[in-house]
Write a structure and sequence with these properties.
Layout lengths: L2 H35 L2 H13 L1 H16 L9 H11 L13
Helix pairs in contact: 1-3, 2-3
Length: 102
Amino acid sequence: MEEGEDEQYNKKLRKRVTEALRAAKLEEQKKEIMKQFLEPKAYERVMNIRASNYELYSNIVNVVVSLAQGNRINSKINESQLKSILAKLTNRREPTIEFKHK
């Protein structure tokens, strides 16, 4: 590699490392928020969801943060309350099958 190419490569590498560190820091902040507002069993459930469906996990974090910012959380969210939140987030219409007779 020439010196110019080497310098560009180092800049790109530093940028990637910085972005990865920023993402890791953000993830740790999310976990801390969840620990603060969820009971241990509910937190464990959320971490399992995080492993299986990151998009749903992000939605849960957003809901909990918005509830906290609106001062609508009086105590830690328990597992049954979390299940209720999950039901609302994953509410899908059941498909219906129609038969048309000729």
